[in-house]
Amino acid sequence: MKKTTTYAAGILEAYEYLLSNHKEFFIIGQGLWSPWYVGATMTDLDKKFGKERVIDCPISELATTGATVGAAICGYKPMIVHPRVDFMLLAVDQIVTQAAKWRHMFGGNSSAPATFRAIINRGGEQGAQHSQSLHSWFAHIPGLKVVMPYTAKDARDLMISSVLSEDPVMFIDDRWLYEKEEEYTEIEIIDLNNVKPQKLRNGNDVTIVGLSYTSFLCEKACQSVEISNKITTDFFDIRVLNPLKIDDILESVKKTGRLLVVDGDWESCGMASEIITSVIEKIDISLLKSSPIRLTLPNSPAPTSKVLEQKYYIKESDIVDALVQITI
Amino acid sequence: MNQEVSELIDPLKFRGKIDINDIEKSMLIDMLRKMILIRKAEEKLSEHVESGKIKCPCHLGIGQEAIGVAVALIMRKTDRAFGAHRSHAHFLALNENTYSLFAEVLGKYDGCSHGMGGSMHIVDNENGFRGSVPIVGATIPIATGAGLAAKMDKTGDIAISYFGDGSCEEGVLHESLNMASIMNLPVLYVCENNLFASHLHIDLRQPSNSTSRFAKANQIKSLTVDGNDVVGMYKLLKNEISEIRNNKPFYFEAYTYRWKGHVGHRDDIDVGVKRGDQLNEWKERDPIKRLFVAMKDQGIYSDQDYESLLSEIDQKITADWNKAEMAEFPNEDFLFNPVYSN
């Protein structure tokens, strides 16, 4: 029987690797000594590696994030964990205006290679302030790399890459993926600079792009339309949102003539718009067989009522419908 | 020893010569030279903000020189100081590198940030100045994290956080002090209380003009002092430093006054709040004059010594300014080069 792992176990393994092999690595964040805040991704790390390197902290998002930036400036490779994106927004100055610009505004004479881990924790009638993702906000910022893994292997290996990167990185993982199982592979040390969108399916009819949890939905939808509708897809998982490497997706659209982007965040000024524009401005328009489609969250805050949640979040069936629509 | 806030904010007090007993002559001269260098450098910047050669916003700290000099004298090169928008003095007190500052302010590649930062983003890692930024209060948590890093290093190094009374109105000060207290971090918080944030007097911004109340609330030891007495501050800090290096945060509130307006070369005596009368009174509490008079009184330094020091510094400032004017700008590709590490 093959050994399997999960997304959450992948993250935990990354932490164990980093804490064992890199003494300049430490973690700070709210809830790190508690089993409630971060799922199974950090179980017993404080017991194993000590409370000096796995630091639970006061309810001060801005100061703890700033302290992470300060430690990074002083030679550490620290990570701040924000158990929900929503609360991290109190710390945006330190992420966007300090860390992301630190190297540039000092002419390369200093840098702040901190990792900001943000967890998307949504659904379950949690409502508007316990559900945001906002990755496209952060992907807008020069100097800040944005990583969103979908596979368990990436959750582990790209977390290691993010921490070891010489640049500040926003690493966003999604609790809806924590139980996702896949075959276990050994740790691969990858330079984040070399990571590009990963092609997970080969086909001819549609190029489909997902990220994080929407890649999970896309993969299922692609399987479904191949069986039911004989539609084959080139499926890409973006992985690194900023800087965006569009070349492989562009080549694919040249082949398929169709592009569907599925992004689990809002439509306006979002990642889906960015990916579609990056393709459209570089492609010979006559190669397109239909208009590109973006499938995103509707432009409303997240609701609490489960009936409205059902309408709000993207489902596999929405993606199937879009794949069918784009090929008509 | 705490001094009375009511006296510290009264420019008619603390005017005379300062107490220089128990300090070596060489150190007194060092203090004097550093303060004059900073004063003259900022006067040069002021001149060229007015002439139009300097375009970037320059927040001058003329009148406040003593604080950065006192702190610099208790620092190791491996300590980590962070500043804010008004940080020329903090930088020059550590390195006396007026060329590096002038070139930076002119946007030249030879500047401390290769011309990418200007007056508000200055850095000198080798001498312990790890960066200044103009977002009010932004470096307070960064310095706190530098303190955490120093504690992990176990080398006895400390972090220094320079900020003004205006920063105390930002929530992040309270978050940071709380964190430093609960985590026992080796951070020296230096509040330069010059009574103004931009155009607005502290009495119009806070219910009390003593910001060390925030240190007390977080059980951090604090001192409230005359910020225009370089020797007094040096002695007090020297007394505290070993405890700070032993992972005890410390809050140092130094009362002072800036002679120029919030930004640029003007005095801003009538911007929002009139400060003309007070400004002239405060100029009598000049940190340079008070040190020199004390040295002269004790026969350590003569008028002639003083004049030759001024002229030596003038020559250096003029030479460095002229050289900075001639220096090269960054290449165009430098717009993108430092965005990422690769």
- Tally of domains of chain A: 2
Work out the oligomeric state of the chains in this entry.
heterodimer
Global Rg of chain B: 19 Å
Mean pLDDT of chain B: 95
Q: What does this entry look like structurally?
A:
The complex is a heterodimer of chains A (328) and B (342). Chain A has 328 residues and is an alpha/beta fold. Chain A has two domains: 4-191, Thiamin diphosphate (ThDP)-binding fold, Pyr/PP domains (Rossmann fold, 3-Layer(aba) Sandwich); 198-327, Rossmann fold, CATH 3.40.50. Chain A is built from twelve helices and 14 strands. Chain A has a seven-stranded mixed β-sheet, with helices on both faces. Chain A has a five-stranded mixed β-sheet with strand order 9-11-10-13-14, with helices on both faces. In chain A, helix 2 (45-49) links the parallel strand 2 (25-29) and strand 3. The longest helix of chain A is centred in the last third of the chain and has 16 residues, at 213-228. With 342 residues, chain B is α/β, with parallel strands linked by helices. Chain B has a single domain (5-324), classed as Thiamin diphosphate (ThDP)-binding fold, Pyr/PP domains (Rossmann fold). In chain B, 43% of the residues lie in helices and 12% in strands. Chain B has helices at residues 5-8, 25-51, 65-72, 88-95, 98-105, 139-153, 171-182, 212-217, 230-245, 276-282, 287-297, 303-326, and strands at residues 80-83, 129-132, 159-164, 187-193, 196-197, 200-201, 221-226, 250-255, 270-271, 273-274. In chain B, the strands form three sheets. Chain B has a six-stranded parallel β-sheet, sandwiched between helices. Chain B has a two-stranded antiparallel ribbon with strand order 5-6. In chain B, strand 3, helix 7 and strand 4 (187-193) form a beta-alpha-beta unit. Chain B is globular and about 50 Å long. Chains A and B meet through helix 3 and helix 5 of A and helix 6 and helix 7 of B.
